[in-house]
Amino acid sequence: MIKQALVLIGVFAASSAGASDLIVKSSPHSVDVTVDRLEEAVSGAGATVFARIDHAAGAETVGAELSPTQVLIFGNPKLGTPVIAANGASGLDLPMRVVVFTAPDGATQLAYHPPQRLVDDHGVPADLPVVATMTGALDKLTNAAVAP
Predict the structure, then answer these.
(1) How many domains does the chain have?
(2) Could you tell me the end-to-end alpha-carbon distance of the chain, in angstroms, rounded to an integer?
(3) Looking at residue 7, which CATH number applies to its domain?
């Protein structure tokens, strides 16, 4: 029941979000393999992996069941520092994070907020070059994670 409620909340949140609010990609791999591939791509690009959070393992600690769901938190101070300098509140959304989860139909999905959200939510200057760099990097890294 908890699992179904969380799925419904997630579906509602995704469907009510703005067009630029969430990027979702399908992966032909399991959650573990997709996150492993993303972590490898992030490290290979010279960024820092700060944390890997396994929500399903956390659910088990309280006797709850959750389909495989992991978050990878990563960043590059060369990119993040100018954004945080423009508005310290943007540190709430940095470093970047990507969630990989098993959808209700059993498919593996990867999702993240686009860096444009830093502009929209925190008033970071839209012409700050690192926003475009972050956008391209996230696309490239997540594409590597979900590639066949």
Answers:
(1) 1
(2) 33
(3) 3.30.310.70
Q: What is the pLDDT of residues 41-89, one digit of tens each?
A: 999 999 999 999 999 999 999 999 999 999 999 999 999 999 999 999 9
Contact 113, 22 (CB under 8 A): yes
Query: Is the preceding peptide bond at 95 cis, omega within 30 degrees of 0?
Result: yes
Identify the CA nearest to 111 among candidates 4, 8, 5, 17.
17
Q: Other CB atoms closer than 10 Å to residue 74's CB: what's the count?
A: 22
Nearest in space to 35 (alpha carbons), one of 22, 54, 56: 54
User: What is the DSSP track for 2-26?
Assistant: HHHHHHHHHHHHHHHS-TTS-EEEE
Tokens 């309280």 found at = 62
